[in-house]
Fold each of these.
Amino acid sequence: MRKKIVAGNWKMNKNYAEGIELAKEVSNLVGNKTFHCEIILGTPFIHLAEAVKVVNSQKISVAAQNCANKPSGAYTGEVSAEMIKSTGASHVIIGHSERRAYYAETYQTLKEKVDLALQNNLIPIFCIGEKLSERETSIHFDIVKAQIQESLFHLSEENFGRIVLAYEPVWAIGTGVTATPDQAQEMHFFIRNVISDKYGKGIADVTTILYGGSCNPSNAKELFSNPDVDGGLIGGASLKADDFLKIVDAF
Ligand code: 13P
C-alpha cells in the first residue's frame, strides 16, 4: 500500500506569530484522532523550527517549500537542505510551478535540489504540471513526462522510491478551477505508467502521487476517491485550520 498524504502549502502567507498559531490550531484539531493519511504542513522557512516543536510530531510533519541547489557557501539569501533538516523538518516541496515560473527554476536546478534534499534525508515533494496553453495544445502529457524525466530519472531505484510527486496543473492553482476527478485520474495514471516504464511496476505502485490545484473541502473527497490520486497538496485551503482538517478527513 502506498502512503496517502494531505500536505498544506502555505506559500508566502502568515507572519511568524500567525503561522505558529495556525500550526498549533491544526495540531489541536488533529488531537489524538486517527486519520487515514499523513499530514504535512509546508510552511515558510521562518516557521519551520518552531512549527516542528508546537505540532504533535506523531501526527504531523513539517515541510519547507524550497531549498537551495547548492550545499553551502556564498549564496546570499539561500537556505540549504542541510539547514532545513536541522530544524526538524522532514520534507521539502521542490519544483512548484510558481518557482519554475517566477524564479526561473530549470530541470537542472531542480535535479540538484532533489539530490541535496535526498542527501540530507529530506523527502522531496516534487511538483509537476502543465500550463493551460499546453493542455489546450494537447502536449500536457509530454510536458509532465519531461518534467519527471529531466529532474528525477537520474535517481537510483532506491532514491526514486523516496520521492513524493504532486501533480498540479498550473491552470488549477489558485484559480478556483479544479481538474475534474477524471482529468486528475487520467494524468495520475499516466504518471504512474511513466514511472513503471523506467523503474518497474513495483516502484510505480508504491509512489505517492498527490493532486494540487484548488482542492477544497467540497471537492477533496471526489478527487481522492480516484485509484491513482493518493492525496493532495493544498494551497489556499490550508491557511484555515478547519478547512484543512476537512480535507484531511476526506480520506
Ligand atoms: P491552491 O490550493 O491555492 O490552488 O494551490 C495549490 C498549490 O499550488 C499547492 O502547492
Amino acid sequence: MKPVSSLRETAPPPPTHVGIIMDGNGRWAQGRGRPRIEGHRRGMETVREVVKGSIEQGIEYLTLYGFSIENWKRPAAEISSLMGLLRLYLRQEIKELDQQGVRMRFIGQRSLLANDIVSLIEEAEEQTKNNTALNLVVALSYGARQEITAAAQSVARQVAAGELDVSTIDESVISEYLETAGMPDPDLVIRTSGEQRISNFLLWQVAYAELVFTDTLWPDFSREDLREAINEFHRRERRYGATG
Ligand code: FPP
C-alpha cells in the first residue's frame, strides 16, 4: 500500500471553480408534506455543509445559484420567505464564514433586491474581502442573458465614446465586462434534483465546463456527494475541442 503522503501527491488537483444549481428544495419539502420554505431552510443548511466541503477539497471558487432573475415570477409569499432566509444567512453566517477564511461576492441585479439586503451584501463583501480560503460567489437575482446584454451595452457605450476600438474586442474583452471579471470560468457545474438544464446560469462562463447532474435533492446533498461529483469530473477527459 502506498503511504498517505504519496497518495496525496498523485491525487489530481480539484476543479478550481465549481458552480452549483441548487435545485429540489420544493420537492424535498412537498415529499414530506411540509411547506416549500422548509425545503429552502434545509437547503440553507446544505449551503453551510458544501462551503465546508469545498474548503476541504481545495476548491478556490464556489458559485451558488441562489435566486435567478426568473425566480421573481414565483408567488410573492415564497419570494418573501426566500428573502427572509437570505437576510438570516447574511446576518448569522458572515462571522463564521469570515472565520473560515471565505471571501463572499455576489453577482446579479442588485437594483431588484430590497435596500437592506443590498446593504447586507455590501457589508459581507467588505468584511470578507481579504479572505483567501474560498471565494464564495452567490448569484442572486441573476440571469446570464441579462449579464451578457449589460456587457454588450457597456462595450457599445465605450465604442460610441471613442474609448474602445471595435477591432480590439475579443473574448477577453467581453469577459472583463461580465460580473465575473477576474474570476476563472467554472470547470464543473453540478445540478441537483434530476433536472438537466443550465437555466440561464453563467452561460458565457460555462462554455467548457463539465456538467454533472445528480438526482439528489439539494437539501439531501452532502459533502460526500460533492466529493463524488468531483470524482466524476476527474473521470472526464477535458479536450477543449481538440483531439484526445
Ligand atoms: C431551488 O429549489 C432552490 C431555490 C430557488 C433557492 C435556493 C435557496 C437556498 C438553498 C436557500 C439559501 C440560499 C443561500 C444562497 C444562502 P426549488 O424551489 O426550485 O425546488 P423544486 O424544483 O423542487 O420546486
